[in-house]
Amino acid sequence: MTTDTTTPAQSPEPCDPHGAQRTVPAAGASSQRPAQCPTGMAAGPGGGTPQPAAPTPATGVTPYHARIDLSAPADDRPADKPLLDDRDLPGPLSMHLLTTLGTLSPLDDGSAYQTDQASTLYGRAMIIAHLAPRRTIACTFTAAWIWLGGPFPGTIDVISRSHYRSVVHGRAIRVFNRKSIPEHLIKIGRVCVTTPARTACDLALLPQHELEGADAGQLIDRLMAEYHVTPEACLKILDLNRYWPRAPFARNLFEKLEV
């Protein structure tokens, strides 16, 4: 799969398997109709870079996701092939050398992604777009990596109604079959991902051993700090999904953060 950030985004793909459309084209892309953006985010001229929406009349506060820049930097667009394997290099020792130098970050023994590309939100989304199955939603640890960066997660976490048994570049595809309304999703380039608030909720719903063993608590704290996610926003999501497994535990976690 390759990506051309200059191709007009005239027919945006659904952001979720149920038809929600929330496409934000890369900087420099043109469109005959405005991009369909999440609540609180307005498309720029020609459907390009999102511009902060006007403050909400009721509170006078701009929603947190209106401040997220989802565009690819115009002067530093991601490479068309963010993932490389031995066939893309002169020989197997090249992969080892570039990994040692930090130019590449390994996924398994025979593949890696470009480290520089993983330094931006859009670049990380492009990497996941080449790993996650089509028409799935990046969630949980995968979504947290897109929003925050850091070490690459051990699994490819997606929301889907399908099951995937294959291993992708050394990572198993872990499927969550959870309700996902359009307000909880956003599309960055070609990948659909849960919003920071929804991602924080999904992390809080993980089993206790995984919540503690994978530093999920730290990821929740960082998501809330870096994207101005409030405990109230997370509690509202949980209120709409009271029957999710471990929802009471997640509620208790965010209620403590309210104090």
TrEMBL record:
Top-level taxon of the source organism: Bacteria
Biased composition (Polar residues): 1-10
Region (Disordered): 1-62
Protein name: AbiEi antitoxin C-terminal domain-containing protein
Native source organism of the sequence: Bifidobacterium scardovii
